[in-house]
Design goal:
Blueprint: E1 9-13, H1 40-49, E2 54-58, H2 68-75, E3 81-85, H3 93-101, E4 104-110, H4 124-133, E5 137-141, H5 147-157, E6 161-163, H6 178-189, E7 193-196, H7 199-202, H8 213-223, E8 228-230, H9 254-264, H10 268-283
Parallel strand pairs: 1-2, 2-3, 3-4, 4-5, 5-6, 6-7, 7-8
Helix pairs in contact: 6-8
């Protein structure tokens, strides 16, 4: 599939501008090839070169709750970008409304890169309720084994949910683990959205990420293409981050991540739904 054939939304990438906005995590580092990508100005030319017309920018763990780099990238996007912010669990309603005015459509809760105990904290119930009241998605980045306990709280809250990175499974354990099966059932029984993303982090083999494909196949079947979106996770920050430590020997670039979807989802009409129809409907993008 040519990347210029259809409109497409990259629903998971990050705005990095460390020369202007210092990282909250001092040990953050880029793959060398992505150093020039670490600015708001270089983000959109990379997307355009691959036929990607719109994007959801997700707050990276490196910035913590400092959303300025992302908000600035959204502001210069001419309507092509919206965002998912990171905030403290005690965030006020006024702060959430300010973020919405800046183009934010969801709030990220990362148990992997920011607060591993977020769903165990007493503030989580009020936080989820506040997100629901202000019509914001809650985007959850969590290991597969944590999902059964997390889902109980998400379902009780009634909040709209986005699941990150295919649920962050450990591919060597296979698709039959209790956590991944609970996530699939959640997809069948709710209106949650899931991101088909993070292949280079999940795989143990590189190449076309063949070991990730069974998880994507099950996710598309359970959630349906109309609740699946795709993301590159670009720029490829901290590439060794994954459910399992492993040597990192394969080439990484935007094209590799974009083309992995065609390998996982060979049906062009399904890919069209995942790349444009679903994210345009969910996030309100226009042609």
């Amino acid at each position: 599939m040519s990347s210029t054939e259809i409109l497409a939304v990259d629903c998971h990438l990050h705005a990095h501008w460390p020369r202007r906005f210092p990282y909250a995590h001092k040990n953050t580092s880029f793959i060398e090839m992505d150093n020039e990508a670490a600015s708001a100005e270089s983000l959109f030319p990379t997307l355009e070169a691959h036929g990607v017309s719109h994007t959801i920018i997700v707050q990276p763990g490196a910035y913590g709750t400092d959303n300025r780099a992302m908000l600035e990238a959204i502001a210069i996007s001419n309507g092509r970008a919206k965002g998912v912010a990171c905030v403290p669990l005690n965030v006020s309603g006024d702060e959430l409304e300010d973020l919405k005015r800046g183009g934010i459509v969801g709030i990220r809760v990362s148990l992997v890169t920011w607060d591993s105990e977020a769903f165990d904290r007493p503030e989580i119930a009020n936080f989820l309720s506040r997100c629901r009241e202000h019509d914001l998605y809650v985007e959850v980045f969590a290991p597969t084994a944590r999902w059964p306990a997390i889902l109980t709280k998400l379902i009780a809250s009634g909040v709209h949910v986005i699941v990150e990175h295919v649920g962050w499974p450990t591919v060597t354990e296979g698709t039959g683990t209790p956590g991944f099966q609970a996530l699939l059932e959640y997809g069948r029984s709710t209106n949650a959205i899931i991101k088909i993303s993070g292949g280079f982090r999940l795989t143990q083999s590189g190449g076309n990420y063949d070991d990730v494909k069974p998880f994507v196949t099950d996710v598309v079947e359970a959630f349906g293409p109309d609740r699946c979106v795709w993301g590159s996770d670009w720029p490829l920050l901290d590439s060794h981050l994954g459910p399992l430590e492993r040597p990192f020997l394969w080439k990484l670039d935007y094209s590799t991540e974009f083309n992995s979807l065609a390998h996982w989802v060979p049906d062009e009409s399904v890919r069209r739904t995942i790349l444009w129809d679903t994210p345009a409907r969910v996030f309100g993008f226009q042609r």
